[in-house]
Design a protein that fits this description.
homodimer, 128 residues, mainly alpha, 7 helices, 53% helix, DNA-binding
DNA sequence: GACAGTAGGTACCTACAGGAAAGTGAGCCT
DNA sequence: AGGCTCACTTTCCTGTAGGTACCTACTGTC
């Protein structure tokens, strides 16, 4: 944890926000997860794995991830064109982060319980 | 829409997506970070720390975080009303995650360099 | 009586992310 | 000669998150 010089963006109030923007922006999580867990993917393979994503958005996210150096795109100028996406070394360095998230997911039921409690508490008495 | 499917959300293709939704939805990161790093906050204190957030959105996010059991809201029915927000035990359990993110932020310059390389590469030759 | 401060609530509006659907181009199959 | 596949691209359209602005109740202070 290198202390970055001076005040870095007081409007953020939070040094990890830029990382979150890069790593956890919409759709990037399932893409990175897929590439990290199951290795190299072609475009249609990703499309089929993340069934709810549209090709337009998938392209956008992949371009963004490629630009950020998190995935590597390899174009094979063959007859039916073939493109392969794989996670980069930088992307692989996120693995412990993903592992930590996966571990934390044991708390999902706690969250679910908290929601039910909150909703139940909120129905009966008037909120202060 | 209430399809009781056997497989748990094939459209996600990624078990950590629910966690990301809870923890890294918009604005929650600076809020949780502030409460975790600097302790208890009043509403205006949070507002002043995260300067770009509007009161409406801050209220929304705080309610959501309270409902999810990540922050605790304490209302003091005093003359100028006073409300305090603090992080819950569950929220505190995110600390190692935040630490991991903070550590990863050393790679931000790598990302920045990748972006510059990508943009430079993309200007000159035609993209395949 | 005017105003400030607190913790929001509410109504209205806009911008942009993302969805749907069709097109592209090059070649191989039949 | 039409159909197929891949990897997108383009156009059009909608939903909704979030912004702006104003409102509440209460009291102390000027």
């Amino acid at each position: 944890m290198t202390e970055t010089t001076a005040e870095v963006a007081p409007e953020l109030a939070c040094p990890i926000a830029p990382v979150v923007d890069i790593v956890f922006s919409r759709w990037t999580t399932p893409i990175l997860w897929s590439l990290n867990e199951y290795g190299r993917h072609r475009f249609v393979e990703l499309e089929r794995r993340i069934t709810t994503i549209t090709p337009k958005v998938l392209t956008q996210r992949l371009r963004q991830l490629e630009r950020d150096g998190l995935v590597v795109r390899t174009y094979h100028p063959e007859v039916p064109p073939r493109v392969e996406y794989e996670i980069s070394a930088l992307g692989r360095s996120l693995a412990p982060l993903f592992a930590a998230l996966a571990e934390w997911s044991v708390n999902l039921d706690v969250v679910e319980q908290a929601r039910q409690d909150y909703d139940a508490r909120d129905r009966a008495p008037h909120r202060t």
